[in-house]
Design a protein that fits this description.
alpha/beta; four-stranded parallel sheet; 4 strands; about 40% helix; globular
Length: about 140
């Protein structure tokens, strides 16, 4: 994983991260002193469970309402996790995709919208899913 790629706010966004590349990405993010947070959602089969677990794992503020609007608001709030860059590693969304494909697709849309909104800040903001999703490309290598 290249420092140049991870530091590029213009390329930051929502991507699929194959598990074979996770360790290198975490090393690079650490070297760059990025805020790196992860959420394991493997046991979450409903959108309510996913939203609750995301709030806990990502240390959202007390006002987080565990709904899709609040998720977007937290992800786009630059004061939520100050830093020179952010990497959110989201694991285990296969459970939601299989149990509730419609809410899975909506969640992906919220992630996409949040990363697009954060591009304007100039601070790299990455959301990386271990679960492939339609329309989400693999994280580039360069």
């Amino acid at each position: 994983m290249s420092d140049k790629l991870l530091n590029d706010a213009g390329k930051a966004g929502l991507y699929h991260l194959p598990s074979t590349r996770r360790e290198a990405l975490e090393r690079t993010a650490g070297k760059l002193h990025f805020q790196t947070l992860s959420a394991n959602l493997i046991e979450c089969r409903t959108i309510a469970q996913v939203l609750q677990q995301l709030g806990n794992a990502l240390h959202f503020p007390i006002w987080y309402g565990a709904n899709l609007d609040a998720l977007y608001d937290c992800l786009t709030d630059s004061d939520w996790q100050p830093g020179t860059g952010h990497v959110l590693l989201i694991d285990g969304l296969d459970s939601l995709r299989l149990a509730d494909p419609e809410h899975f697709a909506t969640l992906v849309e919220v992630f996409q919208a949040a990363t697009e909104a954060r591009q304007e800040s100039g601070t790299p903001f990455w959301i990386l899913l271990d679960t492939p999703a339609r329309g989400i490309t693999a994280l580039p290598t360069k």
